[in-house]
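Mods, move this if it's the wrong board.
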Amino acid sequence: MSIQNKHQEHFEDLILTGDLSVLDFFNGEYEVSLKIDGSPAIVWGTNPVSGNFFVGTKSVFNKVKLKINETHEDIDANHSGNVAPLLHCCLDSLPRTENIYQGDFIGFGGLNVYTPNTITYQFPKVIIQSIIIAPHTKWSTDGELKDAYVSGSAPFFNDTQHVKFVQPVVDMIRPVLPEIDTDGVQFLSAKDAAAAKVKINAIIRSGEELNWFNLINILGCKNLAHLYLMMIEIKEHLIDAMIVSDAPKSYLNGEQIVGEGFVLKNNKMILKLIDRPVFSHSNFNLQKSW
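Not the wrong board. Structure tokens:
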């Protein structure tokens, strides 16, 4: 698997330009994982340039100022605020590896309930390790970290004395997707699709219902609005087909849920299956501390 370093796409957004390859995604081989709602993202592994172990946030992939931390002095120079203490702990705690991995930070040990972002996670017992990390992605590069690309999912990590790893197992009932009729659908250019996604996100951020009427105003085509809503319905059926095990209990606004959503990967794309009116709205309006 080799995917360029780019933003993960929402399932329904991919069809705005007429690219229906997302529907062929499920005909081949793919990986499914539960999206853990941690923060911030932690990247660790061996720096291919120096050969030294490093930790960092996604800023290790910056094109200009790479914030790669191989020592505690690097962390003090590159980071401040809440992120610096957790990177110090990650540098001391994460197992050394020749590969490069990314995961989400859940919290420091000592509790059994954590709310790193919008979702509250409840573990069956108090975490005795120093930190809790949810690994999800493996990165590779033929040169520097700024040229890194997604090369697969993170392997299963055994807990260590210092790190509690959260890696739920997801099984999926193989879906049978409907045939899509595109007659009369006026798809968007890449530029217009990008502008439409901004407007859709604005509606989700406001808490307003995303419906046929406001989608027509955004997309300019009744048939495209209908297709977009159909893709959302298909996505909801896909989410319902997921079977999750080995996950902490998840809560949102006091109600137990399965989780934030799911990430699917094959050798061409990465998809997000998320209940956007619930989780994207919460994330859009959450005050970030990192």
